[in-house]
Amino acid sequence: MIVRRSLSYGRAMTLNDPAAYAAAWIAAWNTRDLANVLPHYADDIVFRSPIAARVRPETGGVVVGKAALTDYWTAALASVPDLHFTLEDTFVTVDGLTILYRNQRGGRVAETVVLDDAGLVVSSIAAYAG
Q1: What is the DSSP secondary-structure string of 18-51?
Q2: In whole angstroms, what is the distance from residue 46 CA to residue 23 CA?
Q3: Does the structure show a pLDDT above 60 at 108?
Q4: Is residue 81 classed as helix, strand or coil in its secondary structure?
Q5: pLDDT (0 to 100) of residue 51
Q6: For residue range 31-84, what is the model confidence (pLDDT) as tens digits?
Q7: pTM for the full model?
Q8: Rounded Cα–Cα distance for residues 75 and 101 (Å)
Q9: Pairing of the two strands 121-128 and 96-102
């Protein structure tokens, strides 16, 4: 759950503690249980990822809506039984944050999430190092 208050980064981003949010997001993923991950996301989420393009080629890497995201992540999780993220850093932006982490292979990942007024992710872009 997100405790909300305004921060002064241009337009108000209503996130109490970005580092705590990122830690909770990582912890949810590390359970490998979508019931813990999906509550972070709005029903109208737009998710962009080159991995989505590989797992679900018909998306072109852009997954729209929570139902489609659930379908994609279910397939993706099945193919990565050792999934584990390690938080490295958090960067605050106008209405969201970028979570920098390493995956189970040691690869660096940056995921930028934009939050709505309820604190749910409405847009997410995952980027992978080299």
Answers
A1: HHHHHHHHHHHHHTT-HHHHGGGEEEEEEEE-HH
A2: 22
A3: yes
A4: coil
A5: 94
A6: 999 999 999 999 999 999 999 999 999 999 999 999 999 999 999 999 999 999
A7: 0.85
A8: 21
A9: unpaired
- In DSSP terms, 46 is beta-bridged to 64, 123
Longest dimension (CA), the chain: 41
* Phi, psi angles (nearest 5°) of residue 11: -60, 140
Give the start-end residues of each E strand in the chain: 6-7, 13-14, 41-48, 62-64, 86-93, 96-102, 108-115, 121-128
How far apart CA 92 and CA 98 sit, in angstroms, is 6
What does the pLDDT read at residue 3?
A: 36
Judged on CB neighbours under 10 Å (0-12, 13-18, 19+), 115 is buried
Burial of 46 (0-12, 13-18, 19+ CB in 10 A): middle
Candidates 100, 94, 101; CA nearest to 115 is 94
Chain centroid to CA 78:
18
